[in-house]
Specification:
By secondary structure, the protein is an all-alpha fold. It has ten helices and no strands.
Length: about 200
């Protein structure tokens, strides 16, 4: 009987599982949500925290937070976006507490003005060799690293990133531009102006 119920639960949408869990409080439904998203949440935690032990602890705390706040999910965004938002904010809080980082974004890159704004092509990041890109990301403020990962690794749309961060689409575009500028600056500092497509292996 349980296996039949489990198979049926796997066929339900996220919204259906949430509705049934809130109605019946049957842990089977929440377990299904957990199984769907635990891998993604853990991957996001480890990419932001760079520590497997911390990431596992964070994942458990995040799912407790999701469980306790499930009734507040309003479906204004997808459940996956809501989970991502909780994960992102939890990890950022951990980083800020650990490092006492007062500012998590590059809010000011030489006081960018409307006159001096320059569109940084995506190739600045996409053409970096993988090991070099990893080193650049490690040097970025946590918020900049996270927003670039959302855009280029998680392939989220600008609107989805805005929903997660609670910012307008124009603000997100500006933040991505600043993060790319910061990445280019860090790359130049680390590798002395070597070409992005380096020939060394």
């Amino acid at each position: 009987m349980t296996s039949i119920a489990t198979r049926k639960a796997k066929e339900l949408t996220d919204s259906e599982l949430i509705t049934l869990y809130l109605k019946d409080q049957n842990t089977l439904y929440f377990t299904q949500l957990y199984n769907r998203y635990k891998g993604k949440v853990f991957a996001k935690c480890i990419s932001m925290l760079n520590d497997e032990g911390l990431a596992r602890d964070a994942m458990q705390d995040i799912f407790i937070k999701i469980l306790l706040n499930l009734s507040r999910f309003t479906e204004q965004s997808s459940f996956s976006t809501w989970v991502y938002s909780i994960t992102y904010n939890y990890c950022i809080d951990m980083i800020r507490r650990k490092k006492r980082v007062p500012m998590i974004y590059t809010e000011d890159v030489g006081k960018i003005s409307k006159e001096t704004e320059v569109e940084i092509p995506d190739s600045v990041l996409l053409e970096m060799k993988q090991e070099r890109l990893a080193k650049v990301l490690e040097q970025l403020p946590p918020g900049d690293k996270a927003i670039l990962m959302m855009k280029y690794i998680d392939d989220l749309q600008i609107k989805e990133i805005g929903d997660i961060l609670g910012k307008s689409e124009s603000a997100i575009k500006m933040q991505i531009m600043r993060a790319k500028m910061k990445s280019q600056s860090i790359y130049d500092d680390l590798f002395g102006g070597d070409p992005i497509e380096s020939s060394d292996s």
